[in-house]
Amino acid sequence: MNILENFRTALSSIISNKMRSLLTMLGIIIGITAVITITTLGNTLSGTVMNTFMNMGANSFYIELKPKDEDAEDFNISEITEDEYLNDDFMYDVTQKYPNEFYFHDSTEVGDASVINSRGKTVPITVAGYTDGYMMSENVKLICGRFVNEYDRHFKKHACCVSDIFVRQYFPEGEEPVGKTIEFSIEGGGVDQYTIVGVYRYSAMAFGSFKPGTKEEDKRTPFVIPYSCAAELTSEQNDMWMFSIVLYNREYTTKQAVGDMKEYLAEKYKNSKYLTTFVETAVGEIQQYEKVINIVTLIISVIAAISLIVGGVGVMNIMLVSVTERTREIGIRKALGAKKRTIKMQFLTEAIIICLIGGIIGILLGLLNGEIVGIVLNHIINTKEEYREMIGRITIKPPITAILVSLGFSTLIGLFFGLYPAGKAARMNPIDALRYDD
After folding, report:
1. What is the b/e burial string over 255-293, where b = at least 16 CB atoms within 10 angstroms of the residue's CB?
2. DSSP secondary structure letters along 353-380
3. CB contact at 8 A, 29 and 245
4. Contact (Cβ atoms closer than 8 angstroms) between residue 102 and residue 94
């Protein structure tokens, strides 16, 4: 009997005992479904986490100034010159040497203020000094114009960036906001004038949600001015830092951006007596999170796969029953010259096909479960603006490797647990088998 005949005979036996075959497959189906569901969700979670971090500024790295010899007794921080700190001049010089490549992350809030629009109505605002790097790291979208930048910061330009909500509040007639001058007064302070250079879309994730029921005219949004101007208004004139967060343009690779910064720092601090620099990328941290997720997914998948052993025992049990029921058939075939190997392959093929069909059904159910969970999660995300801004849309990512491994594993389960029943059938004495009475 060749492979094709074995296959036909096995299918015929499975079809003739549909309910029993389905119950036999149930353990395999449940096990494979659990494994595929878990690995699909784990793969999807890993991809979602990576995308979320990338949207939140994963294209960033950290610069830190450290003593060349931390154990040196003669190190005195007071001996570090002002030029050696990561100050305003340093940041401006970097952005001039590498235009459109680097953005620095700084922020400070001045306080609540108010402006009067053309209709004489008061518009509430919060004056804050946010750099373009801060806005990018918070994934704040620009609608028109530009963010306040390092040039504005260095020369303390009276430029500002306002929200789309502010534009609707201040320009009820739909005027073009960019280029308009806004005069505001800080509570308990004086009056300042700033020119709008850009409009951003208000982000609940970046700046916080409004209380439910807050009217449009009562919404207070950040009135973004250069960091240096905000520092003056709050009397925070210290711009000497040992640590800074830097974002880089996504058009550059991490390797290229970090390489350019390290080259600049090496040149700047080559003659420093006390200081050296340390650069660490955010991508490395994100990859650590991804590894943790993958390990947890693997462990849970292995636990779920244990149920496949139970399913395999069920297959062996049913195959033993099948061998007993078909004892006379085995005796007749042996009497007609069927070899032990032929009988063994017949029952082994049947066990493998049962497990393989169960594995395929389990894979399909696992993928279906993943899609259902994806639909539910996307529905939940769409109901919350802050979730939608941070995560966007979840795309289910079926794990191809897990699918192939599951198919192979279900086949091995059939092979392993089908060996004993098949061997028992092959070892039957044809005379005893023909005498067998149901």
Report:
1. eebbebbeebbeebbeeeebbebeeebbbeebeeebeeb
2. HHHHHHHHHHHHHHHHHHHHHHHHHHHH
3. no
4. yes
The continuous run of DSSP H or E covering 283 comes out as helix 282-325
pLDDT value for 435: 62
**C-alpha distance from residue 389 to each of 93, 141, 167 (Å):** 33, 10, 21
Structure tokens at 76: 């005195």
Q: 416 or 305: which carries more pLDDT confidence?
A: 416
Contact 133, 282 (CB under 8 A): no
Return phi, psi of residue 131, to 5°.
-80, 165
- Which residue's entry shows tokens 């208004």? 233
Measure the CA angle with vertex 300, ends 299 and 306; round to 5°. 95
Q: Quote the pTM value.
A: 0.61
Residue 34 CB burial class (10 angstroms; 0-12, 13-18, ≥19): buried
Backbone angles phi, psi at 279, to 5 degrees: -125, 130
pLDDT (tens digit per residue) in 181-240: 998 877 656 678 899 999 999 988 788 888 888 898 899 999 999 998 888 888 765 667
The answer to whether 162 and 225 have CB atoms below 8 angstroms apart is no
Rounded Cα distance, 104 and 96, in Å: 13
Q: In Å, what is the CA distance from 394 to each residue of 40, 217, 266?
A: 12, 34, 42
The CB-side HSE value for 170 (13 A sphere, CA atoms) comes to 25
Coil, strand, or helix at residue 273? Answer: coil
Q: Are strands 275-281 and 102-105 parallel, antiparallel or unpaired?
A: unpaired
Which residue from 321, 308, 312 is spatially nearest to 17, judged by alpha carbons? 321
Q: Which helix (H) or strand (E) holds 162?
A: strand 159-163
Place of tokens 């420093």: 272
pLDDT at 433 exceeding the cut of 60? no
Residue recorded with tokens 């299918």: 11
- Which residues 6+ apart lie within 8 Å of 248 measured at CB? 59, 60, 61, 101, 102, 103, 254, 257
- Whether 157 has a pLDDT exceeding 90, the answer reads yes
Strand positions, DSSP E, 31-147: 60-67, 102-105, 107-116, 122-130, 142-145
Q: How confident is the model over 90-114, as pLDDT tens digits?
A: 899 999 999 989 999 888 888 888 8
pLDDT band, very low/low/confident/very high, at 56 (cuts 50, 70, 90): low
Q: Is the dihedral of CA 217, 218, 219, 224 positive or negative?
A: positive
Token couple for 355: 């497990």
Banded model confidence at residue 128, pLDDT cuts 50, 70, 90: very high
